[in-house]
Amino acid sequence: MINYDVLRSSFHALHGRRPRLFRAPGRVNLIGEHTDYNDGWVLPMAIRFDTVVAGAAREDRRVRVRSLNLDEDAEFDLDTPGPPRRGIWLDYVEGVARALESRGVRLRGADLLIQSDVPVGAGLSSSAALEISVGLALVSLAGMEIDPVSLALAGQQAEHEYVGTRSGIMDQFIATLGRADHALLIDCRSLEATHIPLDTSEVAVVICDTQVKHELASSEYNTRRAECERGVDILREVMPETRALRDVSVANFERFGPLLPEPIRQRCRHVVTENQRTLAAAEALRNGDLEATGKLMGLSHRSLRDDYEVSSPELDLLVDIAGMARGVLGARMTGGGFGGSTVNLVGRDCLDEFHETISGEYFRATGIQPAIYVSEAAGGAEEMR
Ligand code: ADP
Ligand code: MG
Questions:
Q1: Are 193 and 241 in a shared domain?
Q2: Which of 51, 136, 317, 360 gives 116 a disulfide partner, CB atoms 3.0 to 4.6 angstroms apart?
Q3: CA-based angle 291:32:168, to the nearest 5?
Q4: What does the pLDDT read at residue 289?
Q5: Distance from the CA of 172 to the center of ligand 2, in angstroms?
Q6: What per-residue confidence (pLDDT) applies to 213?
């Protein structure tokens, strides 16, 4: 937990002014993996971990920023763009500032102090939490307002242009639009976002971090994107109206899938069925049917493991252990894969036992202590008053 009073007084000690505080959450994706760049659906929720920015405007156009997590200072001038893709954390900060200005938001310089308790690189999107909290701070300190969708798009633009990751819109959307006790069904084509009630009073959402990241992630990500595009090209010959895999129903895939060579068929099958599972899971959540949601999560994992081939031995292990624990309604890898975390639905009366089983068995097999977090669905970015 971040101590806001300490953050305020640290800012005051550094800059001699009282800051305003802004926060944006990390997220976990319940279901809908590798569907976003196929124009499909995703179903994330915001988590109780935040990136918090304490900030005050300056008279000039300099942005001076300090990350307490990294114990590092950086700065840039809004009038002299620094080079993109330096591979440093300032890419996210400067990237969102530039994206906002390119969208017509005239910013002021600012002093910013950042602190986050979102685990970094665990697949919980500390990067979007950083972009969105900084973006909201910069806009607000310039005396302006921004709607959540524009702020999310500016965050994504920062990631594309400054960081150099061609990410979908999910992370930034849930960081701005998250709502307490709700998941968010996002249509990644129309950008329509629907809040779905998620009651975690009896069943908890539990995140288990493998603490392992494989280097494969970004090259395989690009390969998967290309495989999906190839699949669309071939399917378009028989279904000319197909723009993305989102347009292919399960029934049509059963009919035309055999036209695709392997492994493209497998990859496309994952995306087509995952879209269907995501819509079904949203419907199940709406009906308060967490059992059905959990089953769909289990199917999602198998599809990611066998068809899309983006899981890892550690992720599979965590899912297998969860499958043997009491009170678990569903478990799957979450995020891009090749490491990161799993997401689990666990009956609250079994939480202690789940915790013990997971850490005991995972440690026995790998020698690594997993990190385990329970989170309710949290709200999106806001100024804290
Ligand atoms: P994820 O978003 O899954 O956590 P990424 O690799 O996309 O992983 O983003 C992590 C990067 O974001 C870090 O390496 C760092 O550059 C930046 N970052 C995230 N949080 C902070 C922070 N509090 N202070 C500075 N940089 C941060
Ligand atoms: Mg990220």
A1: no
A2: 51
A3: 155
A4: 97
A5: 10
A6: 83
